[in-house]
């Protein structure tokens, strides 16, 4: 395996790997089964060994389980890792109850995160969403205070609008924007991505395979008990039409000798030096195929074909990203 190269996260930001490791699926977020812990820890360590230093977690992933896992994996090698933590989501019994972004809550959250991770400082700390329950100035101002105190190194934000991004950045410089982005979800290209670029903010792009739609493995109709069926993108005629679009990706993958998922990740990677694909991997066997995506090159013709087939809005129906 080649070592994953480093990029600056945002203008003159910290050096992080061009590919990030999403740890979310190593824990039970929605009440499902927890992944094999030993395999998860081995996956994180193998990622670090191969130059992937960007580790993404959230204090609500598995109600703290995910941070404990990351803490175990980086024990004795803190400096090899760049730890990105989201806060603010309140889950109970696998159900999303809402956000708690009060300054008093944030100060409480970080105390627990630092202990669970076994570190003195979190590299990137970010509200998982923003709403109108607490003024943006207070949420961002609290993280700015934590930066002054030395408990946090950089401010991040996640799943917000271009206007919210500008507002947050005016309170304290934002280092990174975490956002869902894939061939199937390109709506952010009209305003959010240009805003991030203009402000010199790095982009951490998750859900590159659009919840499995772009892996080429999905078949219509999905079983009724499949969680995807909650969203109209994966229902009835929508799914049939969407999978027809994916056929082009499947054929291109076959011709180039990769999998459709690899091409989906490679497409995100190719969108700019300031864009990092953030990919969930819960087992070591995923690492070689995903590290390989960093070397995939598209010809201009291939790129045009994908951009045409997956023009913004081409994939029909909604998903949890709600754009
Ligand atoms: N800010 C937010 O709102 C937000 C929301 C969701 C997620 N995230 C973060 O972003 C990360 C990634 O998001 P995600 O899990 O939704 O999307 P993802 O990276 O597309 O992962 C979805 C699934 O794709 C599988 N996968 C990975 N590489 C693959 C490959 N080469 N071929 C086929 N399948 C592959 C993984 O399977 P295995 O588990 O079997 O390896 C995973 O279960 C999360 O871990 C989390 O840290 C952030």
TrEMBL record:
<protein>
    <submittedName>
        <fullName>Aldo/keto reductase</fullName>
    </submittedName>
</protein>
<keyword id="KW-0560">Oxidoreductase</keyword>
<dbReference type="GO" id="GO:0005737">
    <property type="term" value="C:cytoplasm"/>
</dbReference>
<dbReference type="GO" id="GO:0016491">
    <property type="term" value="F:oxidoreductase activity"/>
</dbReference>
<dbReference type="InterPro" id="IPR023210">
    <property type="entry name" value="NADP_OxRdtase_dom"/>
</dbReference>
<feature type="domain" description="NADP-dependent oxidoreductase">
    <location>
        <begin position="18"/>
        <end position="308"/>
    </location>
</feature>
<dbReference type="InterPro" id="IPR050791">
    <property type="entry name" value="Aldo-Keto_reductase"/>
</dbReference>
<dbReference type="InterPro" id="IPR036812">
    <property type="entry name" value="NAD(P)_OxRdtase_dom_sf"/>
</dbReference>
<dbReference type="Pfam" id="PF00248">
    <property type="entry name" value="Aldo_ket_red"/>
</dbReference>
């Amino acid at each position: 395996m080649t070592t994953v190269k480093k990029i600056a996260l945002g203008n003159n930001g910290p050096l992080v790997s061009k590919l990030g490791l999403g740890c979310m699926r190593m824990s039970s977020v929605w009440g499902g089964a927890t992944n094999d812990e030993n395999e998860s820890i081995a996956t994180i360590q193998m990622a670090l060994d191969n130059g992937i230093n960007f580790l993404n977690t959230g204090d609500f992933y598995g109600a703290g389980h995910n941070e404990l896992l990351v803490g175990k994996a980086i024990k004795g090698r803190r400096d090899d890792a760049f730890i990105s933590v989201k806060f603010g989501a309140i889950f109970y019994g696998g159900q999303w109850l809402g956000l708690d972004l009060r300054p008093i809550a944030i100060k409480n959250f970080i105390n627990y995160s630092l202990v669970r991770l076994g570190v003195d400082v979190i590299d990137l700390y970010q509200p998982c969403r923003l709403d109108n329950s607490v003024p943006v100035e207070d949420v961002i101002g609290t993280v700015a205070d934590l930066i002054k105190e030395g408990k946090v190194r950089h401010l991040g934000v996640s799943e917000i609008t271009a206007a919210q991004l500008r507002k947050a950045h005016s309170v304290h410089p934002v280092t990174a924007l975490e956002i869902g982005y894939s061939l199937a979800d390109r709506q952010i290209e009209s305003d959010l991505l240009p805003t991030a670029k203009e402000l010199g903010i790095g982009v951490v792009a998750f859900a590159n395979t659009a919840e499995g739609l772009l892996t080429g493995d999905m078949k219509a109709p999905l079983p009724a008990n499949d969680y995807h069926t909650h969203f109209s993108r994966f229902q009835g005629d929508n799914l049939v039409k969407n999978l027809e679009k994916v056929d082009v990706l499947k054929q291109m993958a076959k011709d180039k000798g990769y999998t459709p998922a690899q091409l989906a990740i490679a497409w995100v990677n190719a969108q700019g030096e300031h864009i990092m694909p953030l990919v969930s991997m819960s087992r070591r066997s995923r690492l070689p195929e995903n590290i390989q995506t960093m070397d995939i090159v598209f010809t201009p013709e291939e790129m045009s074909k994908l951009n045409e087939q997956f023009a913004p809005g081409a994939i029909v129906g909604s998903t949890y990203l709600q754009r």
